[in-house]
Amino acid sequence: MMKRNVTLRIAALLAVLTVLSGGLAAFDFSTVKSKINEFTLDNGMKFIVAEDHSAPVISFVLIADVGGANDPKEYYGLAHVFEHMAFKGTDQIGTNNFKAESGALAKLDAIYAEMRTEEKKGFLADSTKLAALKDKFKAAQDEAEKFVVPNEFPNIIEQEGGVGLNAGTSWDNTSYYYSFPSNKAELWFAMEAGRFSHPVLRQLYKEKEVIKEERRMRTESSPIGRLIEEALGAAFISQPYGMPLVGPMTDINNIDPETALAFFHKYYVASNLTAALSGDITPQQAEALAKKYFGVLPKVPKPPRLITEDPKQNAERRVNIFDKSQPFLLIGYHRPAATDPQSPALDALADCLGQGRTSLLYTDLVKEKKIATQVSSFATFPGEKYPTLFGIFAIPSQGVTADSCEKEVYTEVEKIKNEPLSPEKLEGIKERAKSNLINQLASRTGMAQQLASYQVLYGDWRKLFKTLDDINAVTAADIQNAAKQYLNRENRTVATIVTVEKAN
After folding, report:
1. Does any domain span residue 329?
2. What's the CA gap between 146 and 409, in Å, rounded?
3. What is the pTM of this model?
4. How far, in whole angstroms, is CA 308 from its chain's centroid?
5. Could you tell me the pLDDT band of residue 503, with boundaries at 50, 70 and 90?
6. How far is CA 390 from CA 16, 46, 380, 405, in A?
7. Domains: count for the chain
8. Residue 185 Cα to chain centre, angstroms
9. Which of 101, 202, 232, 479 is geometrically suited to a Cys-Cys bond with 88, CB 3.0 to 4.6 A?
10. How far is CA 161 from the centre of its chain?
11. Cβ neighbours of residue 165 under 8 Å, at least 6 residues apart?
12. pLDDT for residue 27 is more than 70
């Protein structure tokens, strides 16, 4: 679920415009808003419905306002684990005998707890006892597997015509999404409510091994993956954006059913869930089904936001990875959350600096000097709900070092600080923000995703329809001031891959 920027926000808005109103010239805010309705259940769960009867399809997006930033200490990666577990089924789906399976899982969990207690003794652990417990654990795991119906949850969705089934965990939230024929709307409500009202930690230990392999592939076996992890760890001292989203291996090992269920009951509550539906359904139909299925979730207060923020950075931080891999450059500057009033200027700054083939960095490093094969900037990373980073990356050309690219990046950054953008360049930024990605987002899924995302991030999906005003209000001076305020040496973390003949 990676990051929205102003381009995505505007594109989503224009997607609504295209589908519902027939083009920018004919756009009427009141007409579009009249097709979008909302309601909140008594338990606090929010629903947003964008009515569109042009085809018998509905796209559903459900966002839990919990991500890697909420992982408890010693259990980093827990939010990501729950993304995986949500596809394992419920007490009715994914099992051939839930009563017997429950007993087998209880026995398995008890052995695991005993095994972990012994393992945590370190060098004092009884190796003979530990070996015996591991054998018992394996036998109990095999017994629990007898009651599992593999992949039944996703198979039901696919068999009933569902498409695009997927989920994603970010540092900020976790989203679940797919589309159904409109005559299967009730099935979506039943399936989704089931996995949030009747969670079963089925195959938890097996899935942890899958996640470990995911970490090996994405991070430990990837020089760029390692670099990003080290860079975030250096950039964030207190804030949880500095912790691995998938979690370190020790924390993945630490995750147990007791901790996992406590996490679930804190964050996967109705008041922390937002659903957006876009397509062939009326608000009245949606509300009736929501009350029937999601209304059973208990009323629990919404978990509070995190309040931990990093202290002001006053010195450049640097990370170097020495590897046989090609060089790589990553620079991150601390900046406010995406909800900050300066965000439109920072989004515009990212566009003119390093987004697209006409950007300053691409023109200088790739086209003219040919010292990089790729270069780009991004307005928010790794999250946007809390203070985050404005980032720049470059892949040097063959025979060129990351240091050489780094110097040229700073040259272009200083140009923006000292030379206000021309009216033509500023207008180009605004036009790109209004037109990029329309084809990708002019869909029910894109609309549902944006409505839900804006509701979760800003507390009001209507913010989506104010984005045009925000970007149009940006001036060249706003962009220049943002660069001067945030793109400074003492505010940055620089991470590079240094190519060596033999990796350490």
Report:
1. yes
2. 58
3. 0.91
4. 19
5. low
6. 29, 31, 5, 18
7. 2
8. 26
9. 202
10. 26
11. 154, 157, 158, 177, 178
12. no
